[in-house]
Design a protein that fits this description.
The protein is mainly α. Helices cover 51% and strands 4% of the residues. Helix 3 packs antiparallel against helix 4. It is globular and about 50 Å long.
């Protein structure tokens, strides 16, 4: 900090490692700010470590993890395309078809695409259930999601009259 004369002053900072409860109040007579970096403070995991742990949990071997990530990205794009097509079509009764198609396209990418389709489908349905959408409709959407991910033809859910563009 700079005082009124333009001189810089320093402040003393005391860092305690461990729980500060073992320090008596008599030893703390200065008016300087203190920072406690004990075991009571929450730690943050770096994103790169979190990604590696996720990949290990998923059982992806070290030689295939880049391919897995590529497939997951492509699968995510497939899911997004199905979602935007559904919004564009705005066709009554077509949502199950678009669910099945997005999951089908993503799953064809490989294990990463299957993983992306499952995560995104579950996330979407969980969000929809939080905002009060019907349980039966959510279960029907999940059935269409599983149908598409299993490699079955999404046209099973295609409503009559839906333009061939979709």
């Amino acid at each position: 900090m700079q005082d009124q004369k333009g001189d810089f002053s320093t402040s003393q900072v005391t860092v305690y490692i461990g729980s500060p409860s073992h320090i008596s109040s008599a030893s703390n007579t200065s008016c300087s700010p203190e920072v406690s970096a004990g075991t009571d403070s929450p730690s943050r995991m770096k994103p790169s470590i979190a990604i590696i742990l996720c990949l290990l949990v998923l059982g992806v071997d070290s030689q295939r993890w880049l391919e897995f990530i590529k497939e997951a990205g492509q699968g995510t794009r497939d899911m997004w395309r199905a979602y935007t097509d559904m919004r564009e079509a705005n066709w009554i009764g077509a949502d199950k078809y678009f669910h099945a198609r997005g999951n089908y396209d993503a799953a064809r990418r490989g294990p990463g695409g299957v993983w992306a389709a499952e995560v995104l489908s579950d996330l979407r349905e969980n969000i929809q259930s939080l905002i009060g959408r019907g349980h039966e409709d959510s279960m029907a959407d999940q059935e269409a999601n599983r149908w598409g991910r299993s490699g079955k033809d999404p046209n099973y859910y295609r409503p009559k009259g839906l333009p061939d563009k979709y």
